[in-house]
Request: fold
Amino acid sequence: MTLEGTGYRRLKPMKTLGEILDVAIEFEQTARDFYSGLIPKVSKQLRYLVEELAEEEQRHFDLFSEVRARPDLESQIGEMVETPASDARFTDCVHLPELGEKPDDQEVLQFALGREQAAIEQYSALAKSTPPGPIRELFNFLADEETQHKNELEKIYYEVVHSGGV
Amino acid sequence: MSVRDVIAPFTAWKNVFLDPVSIKDPINERPGAPRYRGFHQNDMDKCIGCGTCETICQNGAIDMVPVEGQETKDGDSGLRPRIDYGRCCWCALCVDVCMTGSLTMSNEYQWVDSDPDVFRFIPGAEKKSWDDAELGYRRPEGHAIKPGSRVEMGEVEPEARICNFDEIVDGYSIEQAVLEADRCVECGLCVATCPTHMAIPEYIAAVREGDYEQGLRLLYDSNPFSQVCGRVCTHKCETACAARHEGDPIAIRWLKRHITDQVPIEKYTEIIGAPDAATGHKVAVVGAGPAGLTTAYDLARKGHEVVVFEAQAHPGGMIRYGIPEYRLPYDVIDSEVAVIEAQGVKINYNCRVGVDITMEQLRDDYDAVLLTIGLHLGRSTRIPGSEHSMVTKAVDLLRDITAGIEVEVPRRAVVIGGGNVAMDIARSMARLQKQKYGEIGMTVTALEDLDHFLADPEEVKESFEEGIEIFDARGPREITFDKHGNLTGLKTWRVTSIFDEQGRFAPSYDESDEVDHTGDMVIEAIGQMSDVSLLGEELTEKLEWDRGRIQVDKAGRTSEPWLWSGGDCVKGPDVVHAVADGHRSAASIDSYITEVKS
Reply:
């Protein structure tokens, strides 16, 4: 019996593509709501940061929602996809924002970077465990989106925390 | 008639079979000699538009003119020489003096045209047949009108300086300064690069002529922190210096210091002159650093009453509480500030705005308020273990050392950071270790590799000389502890790259290359920020912000019409930029209070 046999497949954690996309959308939605909720709480000089984060998460939410609604993916939305080891951490990130009421800029950035990293790992692992085809391309696309956002955050982190390079 | 007379003409026939000595087509077949001084060539990319050729030309045949496609930037005026062949005598002095070797002469000497105006042309910009000529006149190898090497600055030897905080730079003697000043060609490229546009060629000329009073007058026209900048300026002017293309740049910073060293401090105020008559206007300045005190100086000279509120016991701000005494002696700052106070500026020490007096009170009691609060809070890496009591911030330690507060001196300490602050704290702690234990144990770990250190190369060199270990390209991972919870050092990974292809901060590490740096204390020197808590919630909300910093316009004015801000808290750390900010704010405040408040 090979590893790809039916028994093994039953034991492996699997989700449908639709379920995965729903979690991804929820991931962006909770982040957007979280950052939006922070806007009135943080001091005005930090507000630009949480506003930008909320806008970026809204952009991702819209993008991922569009992907979810794509007609060409409709036939594949029920396809079973193997979920990677990073799935639990990713799901935690959806439900458990771990940031206090009055975070400073560095805390906000480190939190955001952590979430982006979890998302990159999740989508990259999903792409890796999916056979070549449109679904893998979709996961690669999502991983790429999150990587780009993380890179932008890294740049802001350097400017803010390593201020002036002193 | 003799027979000889009859035969003689026919003897010429013997030359029929010889090669002719005349040139059949002299216009096209007679090239100039290999080192002939013909029409000019100019390598447009190499030329920096310094205008030295224009200055030296005895016939006034060269004009520096703008050229399409050549942009003005630091170290390049964007101008290029235009030669007037109605005046040029082909002496080639312009080639001999060219600071970059861009200007040369081809061996082409023929140019026929009926329009006389074309003989005034810009070599390199207007295509000519001789542009690529390999022969012609070039400045001979090794020939230079000025010496290429700068006069070396004397320093106290590392063994002698590591046990104290005495100033380590000697300063130039008069003879050394004149020699160094003599290397300057007065092109003035440095002036554009200097944030406060000091009259550099003119004050260097004053050194050459031994007219130190004139030199000091020129310095204080644009910089009331000339003694300070003569020691710790970032001297970007030297990166624009034309002399750096074929040797060392002129030691502009050291020449500035030399002038201030030569004039007795008692004469400063007399040379600078008295302030204008009192105007009756009052301005409050928060923070007695270079930006705040420059504004105070300018406004006091215009006759306005200026009161400075300083939280610390002494003036200087970041330059006193952030720069160690061996680089900038406190008495230099004090004498600098005494000159400013002599213009009528009042400084209230130990007066913390936000605690002892509010911003609202200042707004109500003064015609204008300037906020120059520096970057006194240190950033933390927040790596695991960084909350431990033996993990400290460099700015806090430096401030305590300056204030004379006893600091804990461990036998071994590890610094995180590769900028000037990291070097400052490592070298300060090394001195304290030497005094306490007779030996030093300082390690610096930095993300950057040595070639890309943020600290000045001199600081890095001097740190090495003083026995400080520097580990470059190391990323901090965690603080390490023994089983009793005592701090044992810092664990780092090797940095494989800091920035991605687009130049964005994206550090990546080789986790297999791990190093434990032993230390009883870890000092973080990664970045700084302003303490804006003095503003209070209401003013913080009212103000507009620019990515975490107070938003100001070009003149330094905030969104609140009565409030200006500048210096490190707005522009980041740099003394001479703070001085430039101070001037801008002063000009803006002056026009506001004289036009609006009168």
User: Anything to note?
Assistant: The interface with chain B takes residues 43-49, 105-106, 110, 151-152, 154-155, 157-166 of chain A (CB under 8 Å).
